[in-house]
């Protein structure tokens, strides 16, 4: 009986560890990557949906930002605003409908606003997008080399 209990506990322990490892490897959030003058990061909505944040040409007068996020529901008609730290930022908005869900894209081309967001992150502060999406500073000062985080 004691051998059976020990064997069951070992199997449960191994399967729990394997499941945890797989879960952690699915997506890598809050880690910044940089390559070819683009700074990439990934976070998630409060509902657990992925959000990709890409700063191009940070620190330059040509700096711009693209935020792409998945969400449940229908695409809204017309333009939508990108809210950053409680303030609306002018942004181009596009949305694609996919099986009852949507993928929204916000593009900010105001270099002053974009560079302000980068400076905010580099000061070790979190950006708050759309009122509930936290973009962490994490390693933004020393990003990893690469094209993008694991999806």
Give a verbal description of the structure.
The chain is α+β, with helices and mostly antiparallel strands and 151 residues long. It has one domain. Helix content is 25%, strand content 36%. The protein is built from two helices and eleven strands. Strands 7-8-4-3-2-1-11 form a seven-stranded mixed beta sheet, covered by helices on one side. The longest helix is centred in the first third of the chain and has 25 residues. The chain is globular and about 40 Å long.
Short characterization:
The protein has 151 residues and is α+β, with helices and mostly antiparallel strands.
Helices and strands in order:
Elements: H1 2-26, E1 33-35, E2 38-44, E3 50-56, E4 64-72, E5 82-84, E6 87-89, E7 92-98, E8 101-108, H2 111-122, E9 127-129, E10 133-135, E11 144-145
Parallel strand pairs: 1-11
Antiparallel strand pairs: 1-2, 2-3, 3-4, 4-8, 5-6, 7-8, 9-10
The helix-and-strand class reads alpha+beta
Query: How large is the radius of gyration?
Result: 19 Å
Low-pLDDT residue spans: 4-25
Give the oligomeric state of the chains in this entry, treating copies of one chain as homo and distinct chains as hetero. Answer: single chain
Portion of residues within helices: 10-25%
Number of individual domains: 1
SS summary, helix count: 2
- The coarse silhouette is globular
Q: What portion of the residues fall into strands of 2 or more residues?
A: 35-45%
Strand order of the largest sheet: 7-8-4-3-2-1-11
